[in-house]
Structure formats: C-alpha cells, structure tokens
Amino acid sequence: xxxxxxxxxxxxxxxxxxxxxxxxxxxxxxxxxxxxxxxxxxxxxxxxxxxxxxxxxxxxxxxxxxxxxxxxxxxxxxxxxxxxxxxxxxxxxxxxxxxxxxxxxxxxxxxxxxxxxxxxxxxxxxxxxxxxxxxxxxxxxxxxxxxxxxxxxxxxxxxxxxxxxxxxxxxxxxxxxxxxxxxxxxxxxxxxxxxxxxxxxxxxxxx
Length: 207
Known about the structure:
Layout (H helix, E strand, L loop, with lengths): L4 E5 L9 H11 L3 E4 L6 H17 L3 E5 L2 H7 L2 E4 L7 H7 L5 E4 L4 H9 L4 E4 L16 H10 L4 E4 L8 H5 L4 E4 L1 H4 L4 H14 L3
Parallel strand pairs: 1-2, 1-8, 2-3, 3-4, 4-5, 5-6, 6-7, 7-8
Helix pairs in contact: 1-2, 1-9
C-alpha cells in the first residue's frame, strides 16, 4: 500500500469518553494510517480499545498502528510504531513479519532514519516541527532536514509535532508523505469538524 496522506494519532486524555466516535469521524474523512497511542498501564483497557479500533479500521480499510507495544501489535496482527527507547527495530520486524507496517521515531536526526531503514522500517518519522502538546520537550526539526532525508532515503517520510491545517503545506512541499496529527485533528468540538479537518488535510496532498 502507498503510505501517503493523513496519519491520525489518538490521545487518551483528549479523546476520553469519545475515542471511537471521533476516530470513526476521522476514518470517514479518509485516514491513511491510524495510530493507537495510550501511555497508561491499563493493559485490559488498552487491549479492549485496540480491538475495537482494529474492527473500525477494517471497516474503512485503514491500517491500524499500535504505539510502542510490539506484543500487542503481534496479538492483533497490526503494525507498530517504535520510539528510540524501544530498542532495535530488527527483532520487531522478525516478530511481526515482512508485511507489517513498522514506523520509527527519528527525532531530528538523519542518522537514526538511516539506521531504521537498514533494520527494516516501513516509514521514518521526524519531529517536532512546531510547538507540540504531545512532545513539548522534543528538539525542533528543520525543513532542511526534510530536504536531506528526501534525497537520501527511499521510504515514506512522516512529520509529527504541532501540525495543523495552517502550517502543514510547507512540510508536504519539502517531501513529507505522511502528516502525523493529534490535537490538530482530534482537538475539535464535534465529529463533523473532525471529518472536515481530515478531508482538508488530505486535500493538501493534492495541491
């Protein structure tokens, strides 16, 4: 599958009590990837929510990605996104098989992206690009880094960190394939607004 478009990432606080309805609204608008991100230690709830999201994603033919939990991803037969503290990517590739989507956080470092590529990543994620609620202390990335990455990497590039409809266009112009968005998508007042924003993000890729 072609990894290009909006990459929606859930937030357990932002979506408390409305996870499934807001995710479905985003899927209705056309999401390329959906990442389930929950940093709590409630394993039973995480399994229950991940299973429900997998069913939703299957209905909309969207790929589900689990944040930081390769074992849960393997259990559900879906993809995973790994941070730099999650160890090397190769064992996860062996666990999930050759077809699973595996993403890697590369912060603002091209070297990390090159390493992830060698270890079998499906896409690499750079960020943050703007002030971010999710990763407030992360180092800032530049558009120059994207230009370098586009020249040297031969796999999809994802941008994350404070991305909104107002600031996303330059990222795409500098070679980004996936826009990973949390608050800029789900920090909406209604499901209708989530769907509208999803479509608007995707339209940026066709300009």
